[in-house]
Design brief:
Strand content: 5-15%
Oligomer: single chain
Shape: globular
Number of helices: 13
Strand order of the largest sheet: 3-2-1-4-5-6-7
Amino acid sequence: MAMYLYLLGLLVLYKLYRWCRELPRIPDRGTKYVYITGCDTGFGNLAARHLDKKGFKVIASCFSERGEEDLKKSCSGNLITTHLDVRSKDSVAKVAALIKEKVGEHGLWAVVNNAGVSVPSAPCDWLTIDDYKSMLDVNLNGVIAVTLSVLPLIKKARGRVVNVASVFGRISPTGGPYTVSKYGVEAFNDSLRLNMAPFGVKVLCIEPGFFKTNVTDATILTKNVTAVWDRLPQDVKDDYGIEYLQKSLGVIKDKVAKISDGDLMKVVGCMEHAVSAVQPRTRYSPGWDAKLFWLPLSYMPTCVSDYILGSQAVPIAKK
C-alpha cells in the first residue's frame, strides 16, 4: 500500500511540475503573426477566432469565399483572411508571398497546419490510386508544401510549426488513405522537429481523437461510402456482401457520432498552448478516447491490437 501511495505522490508532483513549467506565455502577442490553414469550419475556424481574441495577428486561410466572409464578420480588424488551396503550388506560393510582405523583418511566429479531409475512405480494395492521391495531396503534401513555403520566415522569428495529425497517425484501424496521410504527417513532423532544433524553431504535433467536425460528419462519410460502393465491380461486392455495407453505414451513424466529442476547444486549447506557451509540449493528445483507448492501443503488441480491432470489425460475406 505504501508503494502505491509513494507512486501516486510522485505522479502528483510530476503533474504539478509540468503544470508550472507550461504556464508561462510568450510576451508581445500583438507583434506576432500566426498563419492557420483550413479556417472555413471546425478547428481552424475556432482557432482563428480564439487566437484573434488573444491578441495575435492571425492570417486565416480558407478554401471558400464564404469562410473568409464569416471570419471577417466575427473577428477584429487585425485578422487577415486569404484564399488557399493547399493542393496548388501557385496558391501556396501566393499566400507565402502575402505573408512575407506582412511580417517583414520580424518573420512569421507560427504556422498551424490544420487543413484536412477524410474522404474518400473505405476498405483498401474498394479504392484506386487516384483516391489515395486526392487525399494525400491535401492531408500530407499540403502540410509539407505550406510548411516549406514559410519555413524561412519561421526560422527568422525562431517560431513554431504546429501540425495537426490524428490518433490515426499512431494506429490504423480503417482502410484507405486517411491513416496513411496522418502517419506521413507524424513522420514529417518528427524529422522537421530534429532538423529545426538548431535554429530555435519548435515543431509540435497535435493528435486529436474523435471530435464533431467535417472529418467525422456522418452525412459526409455515409455519402462517400455509398458512392464508393456503387462503383465497385460485382465480384468485390459479392466478397463483402450487402449486409457489410448496411452495417458499416450503421457504425458511421451510431458509433462514430456517439464517440465524437462536441467540445472543439479541447483541440483549440492545445493549438493555443503550442503557439503561445514558452515551453510547449512536443505532442498533444486532446480527447478522452485518444488518451484512454487509441494511444494505449497503439503501444500494445500488434497481435493484441489486431485482436481488439478485429473483434469489432464488420464481418464480410465471403470467408
